[in-house]
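> @MW can you paste both from yesterday?
MW: sure, first one:
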Amino acid sequence: CIDACDQVMDRVGLPRGLVRYSSEDALATGRQHWLRPRIIAYPLLIAIVGGLFGFVLAGRTPAEITFLRNRNGTYRLLESGAVMNLVQIKVVNRTGDAREFEVEAEGIEWSSADLPLAIAPRGSAVATLHVSLARDRFSEGRANVVFRVTDDAGFSGEYTHPVLGPLFAGDAGAAKAVP
């Protein structure tokens, strides 16, 4: 409509701009304000949201590590006096490349038939670890175990996971234990 009106105004010899984008203030005063709060606020808001998105994307790790609950009971007492737990670790490969993940735990006895985990791009796998801890590692029925997860491309992360055990006679909370 604006272009058509300007063409008609040119043919009849009248000034252009009868139909145009404008405000009442600009028509009354003849001045247009290009620097308005919205002109500044909208690009600034888009830049902030884009920057936050980029920051979150750049800080994303190549793997997601989750400890799953064991559905087969919490722990077992071994004949040696140690406490054995099953710990399940779910590893999600967030990259576009196939990777091989390894799990390590220092200072404890552990074993797993599931390691290393070969995971396809954007895939996941679960490893079950048999973890044995000495009785003196437990305090109030819990012991923290530090697991290190690494892959063949340089990813490395340490994760602390509590394992459950019985309340022993020397524990402060032993009075709460039910035989």
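MW: second:
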Amino acid sequence: MKTKTLSQIREVGLLAVLRAPSADTAVKISEALVAGGVTGIEITFTTPNALQAVKTLSEKYGDQIVLGVGTITQPEQAADSLAAGARFLVSPHTETKLARAMVQTGLPCMMGALTPSEVMMAYQLGADVVKLFPGSLGGPGYLKSLHGPFPDIPLMPTGGVSLENLEQWFAVGAYAVGVGSALFPKEWVAAERFDDIRDQAKQYRAEIERIRQAH
């Protein structure tokens, strides 16, 4: 199951990182994203009642989407996320007790890191993919530099990823990318412009397909 989910994440190439004002809004954003072809969804714990949104989406879409939970900062949140229907877990940082709880779920784990020491620590503690966060600090060039000493550690940048630089991230070996407000701007969410979010998702999906065909 773990291997299958990791393959699916690599295949979809993009995880939409949702920090929504409510669980209901998170579901609506997710529906718009899926309609636009973005099927990798990460509901963050900064969303009120985040796990309710996860349960709703899991029941509605099942294996049609790759659904996970992000911004995990407390060990007990890992098991709670598994129970709600999450298929992968993401933390913004790397910490021993948290990492142990995440790994114990048996789900694919992505732990946040920035420096070379943090990247290696996350990997040694069981991260299947290291979340390079915030990706905006170093950009694609920094990810390329990290792949020098760590060619076998899968890296996923989150923060600083946009439609304009998608190709640059994949060109330097990103396993996948995490995209938040660039995919669904806060003002669109506030105005419930879900059709615009769907259309934006289509653009991201099309760009990923174009990049793959070009390379």
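> thanks! DSSP finds ten helices and eight strands in the chain.
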